[in-house]
Amino acid sequence: MFEVSDLKYATLATLSRCGMIWFPEEVINEDTLYESYLNKLKNQRLDIETIKFSIDNNDFLSYGAQQTSQTTEIISMDTFIHSSLMMVGTFGHLSSNVNSPSDTITSRVLEIQRICANILSRHMKSDGLVALTLDYALENIDHIMEATSQRLILSFFSMMSFSVKQLLEYESNHQDFPLTT
């Protein structure tokens, strides 16, 4: 993936082969980025990436150790089952109105993420803390690379996603003391 400031030297062939899409900063403003991130946080489980990474990591390690594909599938399935059972054991007691343990996990994870999104949304308004901090960072702080509002916002989203994942991990590891609002 390449990040460019414009398409000055790109040909139509390059665009079609690479499947490039370019949006100038004027089209996608801060409010659009905030809204997109908050919608993702409310509707897509962030903890799924961790489970997929664990499975992929075992596949890679098995391949490196010259394991057969059948062994790799068994290891991957064992990892998935182990991760799923840990999550079910943790979240299974939280919601009695949902039939499937998988549904219970999903609903609890999304509930926590929605709470986080609602709290963050208060600060992602044009006069909110995030916008004021962004303005301050662009105007008053020296940066090694060229700082753009989109780059800073996306970095902020990465940090927030990491923090939400930490909350989800805490919730899964501390069933004695579940998170409350």
Q: What is the number of helical segments per DSSP (H or I, 4+ residues)?
A: 7
What gross morphology would you assign?
globular
Order of helices and strands: HHHHHHH
Level of helix content?
55-70%
Mean pLDDT: 74
Radius of gyration: 21 Å
- Major beta sheet, specifics? none
Q: How would you classify the helix and strand content by structural class? A: mainly alpha
Estimate the strand proportion.
Answer: under 5%
Number of domains: 1
The overall strand count is 0
Protein name: Ala_racemase_N domain-containing protein
GO molecular function, one term: dynein light intermediate chain binding
InterPro entries: DHC, P-loop_NTPase
Organism: Strongyloides papillosus (Intestinal threadworm)
Topology at a glance:
Blueprint: H1 12-18, H2 30-43, H3 48-64, H4 69-91, H5 101-123, H6 129-140, H7 149-173
Describe this structure in words.
The protein is mostly helical. It has one domain. 67% of the residues lie in helices and 0% in strands. The protein contains 7 helices and no strands. Helix 2 packs antiparallel against helix 5, helix 2 runs parallel beside helix 7 and helix 3 packs antiparallel against helix 4. The longest helix is centred in the last third of the chain and has 25 residues. The radius of gyration is 21 Å and the shape is globular. The relative contact order is 0.12.
Brief overview, please?
One of its GO terms (molecular function) is dynein light intermediate chain binding. This is Ala_racemase_N domain-containing protein. With 181 residues, the chain is mainly alpha-helical.
